[in-house]
């Protein structure tokens, strides 16, 4: 109904105050109808209906104001509460003043001010409501009395006080509960923002260390390339030695290419280093690359989904993240791994099933934390899963690790690029 009310808590509270005022206006109209047609009370109906009509007009202006994406200040919210206090005071003045059973409704704006505004506004609201209540002790239009029916009037007064108490209790509870929900949601958002900021700091630190390591490794790799080249030229007659040197030179070349790609990709934005590619082709390329990296690992792959397959954002970070997850599964299950992919028009679901020992209780709780690893010392740094999870979440996806019968399951969900029609 409104535009964006998530900018600040006061904006949400003003919306709730608007809804609360609608309930109060409806209750006033029902009370007027009961007093006029059923109880046949002789009151200042013209003045009272005018006050309610003006309150409805002001609430309409509040509704129009809420449709504007303007920030709500404490002064504005306090002024809105003052409108309700003065409208209630006017109605009470024309209907018995402090003898009116609905006098306890003064508690409603006071409670809202205490829950939503700073303490200075709360004490000011308390002073205003006490002053209005005090003035109504002396200045008011008395209610009509029929001394022959004094007992029935007293019972009616007691019933009215009960109704006012119930109404105040329900409305106050509703508003305070909504306020509590807003505060908890805000605290949750702040906690998530702090967690994300901490994760970004860790990623930046790891990226800095990786870039430094890449620069430092460049020199020894170049030296090894020169030495292996000279050895290859010196021992041309030894075929077995030549084969070993060739494998070593290929591995050195692969390391240099990886470092070069790492430095080239560092600092590039998501939109700059990726392009759309069919999801099935993307997975095939990742698995082909992984098979070259881990030729000793046996795996089965099954992919199914709508055809033609929708596109996924193909980036170096995303493919490397999936490779990290595959490597973790291969480390836990060297013999066999099952890979299942399923996609529709909106998302890709990738499941990596290993046949290892599964996740321990600590690993299940801390999986994805930086520098946490369940591997033996010297066999892992605890950053592969952390970076994979962070990068996949950055692309709008999620990673979930669970135990299953006979091993563990790594489930990856990635959004796909919708095709324009």
Query: In whole angstroms, how far apart are the ends?
Result: 30 Å
> Which structural category fits the helices and strands?
alpha+beta
How much of the sequence lies in strands comes to 5-15%
Mean pLDDT: 76
Helix/strand order, N-terminal first = HHHHHHHEHEEHEEHHEE
Total E-strand runs: 7
pLDDT < 50 runs, ≥5 residues: 1-6, 267-273, 376-381
List the helices and strands and how they pair.
Blueprint: H1 9-38, H2 45-66, H3 74-93, H4 107-116, H5 119-136, H6 150-234, H7 239-265, E1 274-278, H8 279-293, E2 298-305, E3 311-315, H9 316-332, E4 336-343, E5 347-354, H10 361-366, H11 384-394, E6 398-404, E7 407-415
Parallel strand pairs: 2-4
Antiparallel strand pairs: 1-3, 4-5, 5-7, 6-7
InterPro entries: 2C_sensor_his_kinase, HATPase_C_sf, HATPase_dom, His_kinase_dom, HisK_dim/P_dom, HisK_dim/P_sf
Catalytic activity: ATP + protein L-histidine = ADP + protein N-phospho-L-histidine
Transmembrane segments: 18-39, 45-66, 78-96, 124-141, 161-181
How is this structure best summarized?
This protein is α+β, with helices and mostly antiparallel strands and 421 residues long.
Structural commentary:
With 421 residues, the chain is an alpha+beta fold. Helices cover 62% and strands 12% of the residues. The protein is built from 11 helices and 7 strands. The protein has helices at residues 9-38, 45-66, 74-93, 107-116, 119-136, 150-234, 239-265, 279-293, 316-332, 361-366, 384-394; strands spanning 274-278, 298-305, 311-315, 336-343, 347-354, 398-404, 407-415. α6 runs antiparallel to α7. The chain is elongated and about 125 Å long. Mean pLDDT is 76; it is low at 1-6, 267-273 and 376-381.
